[in-house]
Amino acid sequence: VDTERQLREALREEQFTLHYQPVMHLPSGRCVGFEALVRWQHPQRGLLAPGAFLDIAERSGLIVPLGAWVLREAARQLREWQGEADLAGLFVSVNLSGQQLQVPAGTPDDLLTVSFPDGLHLEITETSLADTPEALRAMRALERRGVPLMLDDFGTGFASLSAAQRFPVGTLKIDRSFVSPLPGDARQTAIVASVVTLARHMQLNVVAEGIETAEQAQAVTDLGCTFGQGFLFSRPLPAAAAAAFARSRP
Length: 250
Ligand code: G
Ligand code: G
Ligand code: NA
Ligand code: MN
What we know:
Residues 1-250 form the EAL domain. The protein has a single domain (2-247), classed as Alpha-Beta Barrel (TIM Barrel). 38% of the residues lie in helices and 22% in strands.
């Protein structure tokens, strides 16, 4: 309850900031975009990662206005980068809570009232996707607007294939629990190989998450994965450092 009250205050006082983790085109080593990740600049406790407050935000419903702030801030930052010739082609993806897809149409935190710049993508996990008519309608409306949707933590849910079939997503992000064991035994390799094959047949992009070693990067690249993300390339960075990172790549 105390954290909830502080969260409300933090929203009013804009104590949040976004960090950006690079997403790489594996064959060329180019940085093609960033995943935006929220941080709370807490007046006493310092910079807090989402693990410290996201559960409470979800349970209290504050994730809805917080998520709306994240979207507006990511859109603002992306537009700023698009004004700079050497950053203009980058995308920024924002993680959505399933609750953001349940907001009644036309109310202030309704996703569809946000004006999405080209290059703003949304990430959603299968588990947070309530299979409701509202969520499906919101996703279809986003699709019609041309907002790219990415299925996050792919493979960790009980119905990943079903989610890939039912929801209009353009990218699968292979969860890091499948990437970490690589280069691994035949079973571990088969899972990633199968997701890449599935994605190719569905004409979807694939991002391998959680790449921490050069061997993992090589393994997912050999399996045909085009994009990757992980501490090997970069941790999430404040905006200026993220821009510098992108400029430092080919
Ligand atoms: O940055 P970090 O590794 O601590 O993030 C932990 C989790 O928080 C990740 O699963 C990420 O998807 C989630 N997360 C980060 N930023 C946001 C956000 O803006 N909205 C939502 N809903 N989840 C986020
Ligand atoms: O659930 P989601 O995929 O949105 O999680 C994103 C989180 O994963 C971020 O908070 C980020 O800090 C973390 N992350 C990103 N790359 C790596 C990595 O290479 N290793 C580990 N352990 N965590 C990572
Ligand atoms: Na994500
Ligand atoms: Mn993920």
